[in-house]
Amino acid sequence: MAKKLFIKTYGCQMNVYDSARMADVLAPLGYAKTETPDDADMVIINTCHIREKAAEKVFSELGHWRIRKTEAQARGNDVTIAVAGCVAQAEGEEIHARAPFVDLVVGSQAYHRLPELLARMERQRAAERQRAGTQAAGAQAAGAQAKGQPVIGMGVLDTEFPVESKFDHLPEQVVTPPGPVGFLAIQEGCDKFCTFCVVPYTRGAEYSRPAEAVIAEAGRLIDAGAVELVLLGQNVNAWHGEGPDGVTWSLGRLLRELNDRFAHRHPKLRWRYTTSHPREMDDELIAAHRDVSGLMPFLHLPIQSGSDAVLKAMNRGHRAEDYLRIVEKLRAARPDIALTSDFITGFPGESDRDFEATLRLVRAVGFAQAYSFKYSPRPGTPGSLMPQQVSDAVSTERLHALQALLQEQSAAFNRACVGRSMDVLVERPGRQAGQLLGRSPWMQSVVLNDPTLKIGDFVTVTVTDGHANSLFGELAGASREAA
Length: 483
Ligand code: SAH
Ligand code: SF4
Ligand code: F3S
Description:
- This protein has 483 residues and is an alpha/beta fold.
- The chain contains 14 helices and 21 strands.
- Strands 2-1-3-4-5-6 form a 6-stranded parallel beta sheet, sandwiched between helices. A 5-stranded mixed barrel has the order 17-18-19-21-20. Strands 7-10-13 form a 3-stranded parallel beta sheet, with helices on both faces.
- A hairpin with a 6-residue loop joins strand 17 and strand 18 (436-439).
- Mean pLDDT is 92; it is low at 141-148.
- Bound molecules: S-adenosyl-L-homocysteine (SAH), iron/sulfur cluster and FE3-S4 cluster.
- S-adenosyl-L-homocysteine binds at residues 50-51, 196-197, 199, 234-235, 275, 277, 302, 304, 342, 344, 373, 375-376, 378.
- Iron/sulfur cluster (SF4) binds at residues 190, 192-194, 197, 199-200, 234-235, 277.
């Protein structure tokens, strides 16, 4: 009988990609994915270490699984508990100490070795059962009950950064159907070492997958039904690789080639890429926004702060003015491009004037949407050791002011869409019965209420309402007839 695998994913889209690949790696061992945690034989918690809150979630989630495991063991079964991802990478030993019932800790660079690790775990489990059996027999002979033993896991750990790339060892077939949107990791890791960030430590050095491997995987995802492909990397626009022509391609070139090769597969095939760094936003990539028909008019380009002093302390390697110049070039290439970004408030040394500069930059650019976070000092990063840490009260106050401005901008952006028609890809069920959620070219969520629609449909929608976080729409005339 197939064993059931439940995966809980936290963090960025790279983790979403990794979760799908872990399911692919485990499929040949008889594990089938389940969406219901209650009947899982194995759970993988794929973790994020980016901020303190994200990391703490792991331990509260684990507390829940400890109970499930205890119940299963009482019935003579077991639930295999695995922790993967960036917390596993950064705090493997600590997980083992704080949660000894965890069976497997697998870092983000080692999950292609899951079958080996599971085999090692099974061997340990068998040995443990034998040992417990002998003890229980001894105890019984003495008239005692072997009850109330603490629940234990096998504590198998693999957080190495292997020399060979895990990408060369992942299965070629797409076992987990991607749905209409396929994620494709083309680059991983980071050499930028922003002073607040753990990613260079949890994901290792920048690595680009070869162009041929990317093209082949894009083809497989499209074969499996994806009509929108999102190229992923922590520094995706630092991607470079030798193309089949022997020349080194940049991301701009890769996007052109992918679109040329696959555009005939679907009339509305879409491409996106995330996350980009301002330092890697070269002219070829900007030109791709002008020339590549399937490339969506959307870019997530984190800046973090609008103050040059803070950007310098963050080791971002660019000034506010460089960012504004990139935005100008992008808008010249693709006038309707929507920009989103990430911001941190309360980075060590951030003064009121520095924060004002952030608000000024936000006003100057006009973002379609943005994520903003309070600075969270992460162990091992230079930022955590800097003097002049900003108080939580000040960071919070700045965060609220920034969020109010960003919300205003996204609400204005969405309101400006009311009455317009746009292509929407229907992606998933909405929150209420009968609702479906789609995506506009500009990454807006579009709520649709139409019984003729199904997931995977591409439709032309007229926007009827626009809020800060979503649009509401109905099928435009032609689409309605076709559906
Ligand atoms: N590679 C991307 C994003 C990395 S993490 C980039 O270079 O921009 C996603 C976002 O989390 C970052 O853009 C940053 O805004 C936020 N972040 C990262 N570390 C953080 C920390 N220590 N405290 C608060 N926010 C943080
Ligand atoms: Fe982190 Fe900076 Fe690298 Fe982005 S570029 S992953 S923020 S170190
Ligand atoms: Fe989190 Fe790791 Fe992604 S720390 S944001 S899951 S790279």
